[in-house]
Amino acid sequence: MSVADILYGGGRYTDFTRHYVAFIRKQLDPAEKPKWVLFNDEKVVEAGDVEEMKKTAYVYFFSRV
Q1: Residue 28 CB contacts under 8 Å (≥ 6 apart), including other chains
Q2: pLDDT of residue 19
Q3: Of 63, 65, 28, 64, which Cα lies nearest the Cα of 5?
């Protein structure tokens, strides 16, 4: 299971030109499924659709289940 991805780019994930952002899979509430959270230079927000991000990620981090 992917637990974190690093993406280099611009566009819909950033408000700036190209730089690195991180998507981390976090479980904030034990009763809910883990959610993807976007960590950017200026904001930390719950990520919406991450399918496109998964295709272009620069580094993937995995956890054994």
Answers
A1: 35
A2: 72
A3: 63
